[in-house]
Structures are given as C-alpha cells and as structure tokens.
Amino acid sequence: MIEELFQKQQEAKGRVALSTYAERKEKLKKILTKVLDSKEEIAEAIRKDFNKPAAETELTEILPLTMELRNTIRNLRYWMKPLRTRTPLMLFGSKGKIVYRPKGTVLIISPWNYPFLLALGPLVSAVAAGNTIILKPSEITPNTSKFLAGFFKDVFDESEIAVVEGGKETAQELLKLPFDHIFFTGGTEVGKIVMKAAAENLTSVTLELGGKSPVFIDRSANLKHAAERIVWGKFLNAGQTCIAPDYVLIRKEDFPDFLKYSSIYIEKYYGKDLARNPSETLCNIVNEKNVARLKFLLNDAIAKGAVLEYGDATRDSGNFIALRILSNVSIESEIMKQEIFGPILPVLFYEDINDAIKIIERNPYPLSLYYFGKNNSVFEKLTNKITAGGVVANDVVVHFANTKMPFGGVRHSGLGKAHGYAGFKAFSNETPVLKQPRFTAVSFFYPLYNSIKQKLLSIFEKTL
C-alpha cells in the first residue's frame, strides 16, 4: 500500500510542481477553513490523547497554525517570484535569477507533543512550495493520528496529500523510499536514524530536534517578571515542549526571591493545591513510559543531592505529574544530561558568567537560549559564546510563534530551518538560471591562450 501511494504521488508531482500561485493559495485557504471548522474535533482528539485543556490546545496548536497559514497566504506570491541576481563583470551582459522549484514528493514525520501543529506546520510550507506530501503522524497520540488520517480526505486527493498511520515499522518502510525531502520532528536519537536512512537515497532532510535549553538570569533581571514567564513557558503542555526552559542558571543570593515569585505564579495559574481539572489546568504526561522516565530523572537528581523546593509526589496521579522545582542540582545527575520534557525545573547556581557558560557547554548546542536581564554586555558575551538554534531575551518559547523568523536548531538540536519563508525554501530547490547573450566577455578567454589573456586574467584576479 505504501509503495503504491508513493508511486501515485511520484506520478503526480510533475503536475503539482507546475501549480500556479492561485492554485497553491486556494489549497492553503482550504486547509485554513478546514482547521477553523474543526477546532472542537481537534481539541477533543488531543484531550483523549493526554488530557490537554481545550484552551491550551487553541493557544498552542490551532492559533500558531492559523498564523502560519495566513502569513504564507499573504506572502506566497512574493516568495514564488524568481529572485534577480547581479552578475560579475566577467559575465558582462548575462542575466541571472534564482527560481524556486518544488523538491517533489516529500515525507513529513511528526511528533506527539504538539500532534496537530507540528504535523500541519511543515505541511503548509510543503504545499506552498508545490510538493506532493505523505504525512506520518505519531502513533503515541493515536486519537490525533486518526483524526489527521481523515482530515484531508474530503479536501485533497491522496496523490497530493496523504496521511499514513502506523508505528515504528511503518516509519521504517517509509524511510526506505527515495523521497525528495524528509522533514522530521522528534528526538535526537531518532533524528540520527532518519538522517542515516535518508543518506541511502541521498535525500535532503530538515530535522527539528531538541536538547537542553538553558535560562540565564542575570543579576540585573527583574526576578518577578522572569519567574512569571519561565513558569508559563516551562509548564506549558506539562513541560512537553522542545523549546521549554530546561533548567535555570541563577546566582544563589537571587534564588529565594525567584522561588518565591515562581511559587506565586504556579499557584496563580494552577491552584494552591494543584487540584486537577483537565479542562482548565495541566495536561497529562503522554504515557506511562514517559512518566517512568521522569520519575527516574527526579529520583536520581535527589539521590545526588538535589533539594526539592516545590512540589511533591502526593499530587501525582496516573499519568499526571505535579510541578517540581529543584535546587542544588548536580551537573553529574541524569536530569542534567537528558532533555527533561516534563514539569520538572532544575535550578543551578553560578558565580559568574564564565561559570554559567561552562555549565551550558557540557551539553550539545541547545535549541533555544534564554536570557533575563538588562545588561547588554553580559547578553552579548553569553550569545557570542553559546551557539544555539534561537535566542530570546526576557521571555521564553514565544519566538516559535514569529512566522517572520526562521526556526530550527544546530547539530544535535536540529538541521535546517522552518516556518514562513524559511519553510518555503526548505521544501524548494533554489535553481540558478543564467542567460547569456550572443556575445559574451567569457569568449575572449577561449583558447588559444597568450600573454595578453594571461595579463588580463591577472588584472581580473586582483580587481573582480
């Protein structure tokens, strides 16, 4: 079935590649209308998967996608236009341009943590670029996967957009096929498997991965402001966000105030006793396997000296894990080596910025780097020393929603960029087109060679 579907899309990709701006715009508008008409069904599918509140689903899954769609619809005509280029004197008289051609038939493998947004976000870019698309959603969120399988059926023929459900075996079968591009969102270790499989067919890839995204709180920071935004961004989706603040670096003398304000905002957002109300507060951890992993990280950190400053196990229930804040966390503990992906916030103390940089550099390049403070020289030193996929000052997470900026990681945290124009280019081949006139300066340098030509070449080498 998968090979037949792939062949069907291969046969259609030439036709889809020639689609006009108006045709692609119409497809995007159909998707936008379908999303807006299906908000309740989307929220219900995600609620069934891990009890995500409907309001949070609208904020984190639907709104960013509609923003992406509208930005793409508004700008697609401009993106599709050939980009004129200047030509050097050596090619005097020629005209050059860059034309954006679709890559062809593309595979999108999406994750479970934002199962709707991270499936359709890259798909929007792929449609805009004129590709045929096979989407493989995560089997870990089966209700959303099933919803996605029916989402496109009454809007697009499967020769253009198709959803393939299944687990690891299905993904392996798909990865054997010679797609023209693969867009994968998920963990670093699986990302390596995807990249290795893509290499067998010399298929280009975009990898949106993760990693440990640090928050550096400078002595100049407004601690109340920092705590408010960190609490929101860290515990959004119960911490199951690839760009969530993974750990906080703060001076020891500033920690008591940070903890005080963090506690205030936790209780403001989630209630003093963290009483569970799935329609209004925290979602669950997605499954038992991830619950067990988080409890192992927590217990290992405490066994190695971490102090539990906020939260306790009495509030845990099934796949629900209450929020925790830890201090005095050892950098040798597993929680400082793995991406946490849950509602546990380690806090580490630093003496000066060089000390903080050494802690950050113990892990691969982070997907995001967060800074709170007003000291520009400290901010510049931090961001110049630390290579990260994205940098945000005095906030967290929100850069993902800026469709005007590229989003992506570096090495272990990702490869390639997505969103907006960057996403359009990720699914396009940038094709240079050069037109030469009948008479060209290059012809002067055709054989036979002589001293005049050599002298002229020497002049060009020094001046062009």
Low-confidence stretches: 275-279
CATH topology of the largest domain: Aldehyde Dehydrogenase, Chain A, domain 1
Biggest sheet, strands in spatial order? Answer: 10-11-12-9-8-13-14
- Approximate strand percentage: 15-25%
Portion in helices: 40-55%
The coarse silhouette is globular
How many strand elements?
Answer: 16
Highest-level CATH class of the largest domain: Alpha Beta
Q: What's the story with the biggest beta sheet?
A: 7 strands, mixed
Number of domains: 2
Count of alpha/pi helices = 15
Explain what the structure shows:
This protein is α/β, with parallel strands linked by helices and 464 residues long. The chain has 2 domains: 2-209 and 411-431, Aldehyde Dehydrogenase, Chain A, domain 1, CATH 3.40.605; 214-401, Aldehyde Dehydrogenase, Chain A, domain 2, CATH 3.40.309. Helices cover 43% and strands 16% of the residues. The protein has 15 helices and 16 strands. The strands form 3 sheets. The protein has a 7-stranded mixed β-sheet with strand order 10-11-12-9-8-13-14, sandwiched between helices. Strand 8 (214-217), helix 9 and strand 9 form a beta-alpha-beta unit.
